[in-house]
Amino acid sequence: MIIKSSIYNCCVIELNKVHNRSGNLTSLEDNMDIPFDVKRLYYLYDVPGGAERGGHAHKELHQLIVAASGCFDVVLDDGKNKKVVELNRPYYGLYVVPGIWRELINFSSGAICLVLASEKYNVDDYIRDYNEYIKYSNENSFTI
Ligand code: TYD
Fold it and tell me: What does the pLDDT look like over 83-106, one tens digit per residue?
């Protein structure tokens, strides 16, 4: 579907959780638990207090962002609307569609931000300047 990207296309997905006395386990499978095929996984850790990550948009990348440990906030912005999603459980994932400006803030001590991504790392997929992002999103649609 090719449409203007909106923060309302992003959503929190409740992931499965296998619970037993010795702990919990969450597993993710392409297209079953998450709405895209995963080509890359990365994680942010040792984020210093007060640091902010993100501050960019992607042209084609779909992502699922999980607070694998601790918590942080994700600010989603489509140029018209903004919302803040707090991630604080390893069994919730925030699905972020292409074309959304995002900032990650308020990392707790020891937080781990796990990101599953639909594409391999591609520097050309990034828009790192907010004014350029607004211009790009006004002139382009995104495949969602
Ligand atoms: P960046 O995506 O800007 O991180 P964040 O959004 O968390 O602030 O990436 C930070 C650096 O890491 C940048 O130099 C590119 C590099 N990087 C990779 O080499 N591979 C990857 O998969 C990612 C996400 C980043």
Answer: 999 999 999 999 999 999 999 999
Burial class of residue 133, CB neighbours in 10 A (0-12, 13-18, 19+) = buried
Does the CB atom of residue 103 touch ligand 1 within 6 A?
A: no
What is the set of active-site residues?
56
Q: What residue ranges define each of the domains in the chain, with the CATH number in brackets?
A: 2-143 (2.60.120.10)
Distance, CA of 6 to chain centre = 14
Q: Is the CB of 8 under 6 A from ligand 1?
A: no
C-alpha closest to that of 111 among 58, 74, 63, 62: 74
Cα-based angle 130, 136, 139 (whole degrees, multiple of 5)? 145
Does the global pTM surpass 0.90? yes
pLDDT < 70: residue spans in the chain: 1-3, 143-144
Determine the straight-line distance between the first and last CA of the chain, rounded to whole angstroms.
5
